[in-house]
Amino acid sequence: MLEVHRWRQIDWAPSAVVALATSVDGTVVAAARENGSIELWNVAPGSVGWHCHLTIPGREEAAISSLVWCKSGGDQSTPLGRLFSAGLDGFITEWNLQTLQPKEISESYGGSVWQLAAEPLEALKRAAISSNGALLKKNSDGSDNDEGSSSDSDSEEEEEEGSSHHDIVEQRIAVGCDDGCVRIFTVGDNQAGMLYRRAFPRVKGRILSVTWSLDATRVYAGGSDGCIRCWDSKTVRELFRITAGIGGRGAGSELCVWSLLALRNGTIVSGDSTGSTQFWEGEHGTLLQGHSKHNADVLALAAAPAHNVVFAAGADGQVTLYQLVDESSGKDANGTHPTSEKNSLRVRDRWVYVGNKRNHTHDVKALALAYPVVQEEGQTERPVQKRRRKSRAQMKNDYKKWAQPGIPMLISGGNDCKLFTYPAEAFLAFHPHDICHAPQRPQVQFAGDLSSSGLSVLMAQHSTWIDVWKMNTNRNAVTDMELGYEFGKEVLGKRKFRDEANYVVGNPIKMNGTGEKKLPVHPASNGRSSPYPSKQVASTKGVAPALLARIKCKTVEHIACSAISGDGKYVAFSDRLKPRLFQLEQQQVGASNSLKAKGIIAKKKLSPSLPAAQCMLFTPDSTRLLLGSTQQIMVINVENGEVLHSFKVAPPSARGPKGSLSPINFMCTSADSQWLAATTSSGYIHIFSLEALRHHWSVPVMDGTVATSAIFRPSSSNVLIISTAGNQLHVLDVEAKELTKWSTANGEVLSMRLLDFPGGITGLSVPPTPVSTTVIAYSSRAMVQIDFSKPVKLYSHEPKEKSQAHANGNGAAPKQNGSSSVHTDNFAYVPFKDPVLFLGHTAQSSVLVVEKPWLEVLRQIPAPVYRHLYGT
Question: Where are the domains of the chain?
Answer without folding.
Answer: 63-199
